[in-house]
Amino acid sequence: MTRDALSGTIIAGYTLHDRVGEGGTATVYRAQHPVHGTVAFKVLREKLRADKTAVARFIREAGYGARVVHANVIRTIQTGEENGLPFLVLEWAVGELLEGYAKRHAPFPPDEVATVIRQIAGAVGAVHAAGIVHRDLKPDNLIYDPQTRTVKLLDFGIATATDTPQAERLTRAGFFVGTLMYVAPEALSGEIVSPAADQYSLATMAYLFLTGVLPYQAKNPREMFTLLISQPPKPLNKAKPDLVYADAVEAVVMQGLAKAPGDRYPDVKAFAFALSAALESPFPAAAAGGLFSKMKGLFGR
Q1: Which CATH topology does 96-299 take?
Q2: Comparing C-alpha atoms, which of 126, 16, 26, 24 is closest to residue 70?
Q3: Looking at the DSSP assignment, which residues form a beta bridge with residue 167?
Q4: Rounded to an integer, what distance in angstroms lies between the CA atom of residue 3 and that of residue 301?
Q5: Which of 78, 150, 151, 252 is the right S-S partner for 89, CB 3.0 to 4.6 Å?
Q6: What letter does residue 290 receive in the DSSP assignment?
Q7: Distance between CA atoms of 85 and 83, rounded to whole angstroms?
């Protein structure tokens, strides 16, 4: 945690303490309030506070977050502006970013994968029910408490409403919003993304949690872009030579990673349900030397 010029100040009744996070557009502080207790206090970065477009996007993010109420979505407590400083007050969630946890612990046990993916799907399903596509679903936008295995979705910074006029949602081919390693292929060609794009991102995370690696390996962003557009992802059971899953598990993940949105599951909850069912089937996963891999060695594929 870090202290800076805003640390120790009081804004709208919230006492800001340490800076706990900073992105390209906003800074997040741990703050205290006499009624709400400990909260996350998010402010637009100083260099962007005079940028009308940046301010509008920040306000839009706050609005999207307030529209989605779900146990696995970070709760929006308050939005406002004081002395020219737009702010967003969010629930303080226990845990850490899922990105760091996954780097240290993936592959996860199958039951943990199922639990995490079901919760994320529940959160994203609520986002979609509110008429929003998240567009930046990734481990770095999820808080995870491994003690309770509770996941919370955050950051609607580049989300879009499905009822936004088509002309405002189109992007030029070669330009996209999101994170390249998790973005759906259709977003790279300038198409209007649908909730199916979030399912692709969820399937990418499932692949990571099951294997510890991503479905595409590239030396640089240009190569990654080309692979996403032109090549199929590496099959789940070829991700690592010492890790084998039941065919049903591989089939679910690879369908979620289908290039064409229409070839994926009907929605994120259907994907999560299918993956959970596959992981609960006999011999859901085994590392080299495990029972399932030994049986495959004895009887062949």
Answers
A1: Transferase(Phosphotransferase); domain 1 (1.10.510)
A2: 126
A3: none
A4: 58
A5: 78
A6: S
A7: 6
pLDDT one digit per residue (tens) for the chain, 301 residues: 566 788 999 999 999 999 998 877 889 999 999 999 999 999 988 788 888 888 888 888 888 988 999 999 999 999 988 888 889 999 999 999 999 999 999 999 999 999 999 999 999 999 999 999 999 999 999 999 999 999 999 888 888 888 765 555 444 444 455 588 999 999 888 778 899 999 999 999 999 999 999 999 888 888 888 888 889 999 999 999 989 999 999 999 999 999 999 999 999 999 999 999 999 976 544 443 333 443 333 333 3
Active site residues: 136
Report pTM: 0.86
Question: 10-91, superfamily in CATH?
Answer: Phosphorylase Kinase; domain 1 (3.30.200.20)
Where are the domains positioned within the chain? 10-91, 96-299
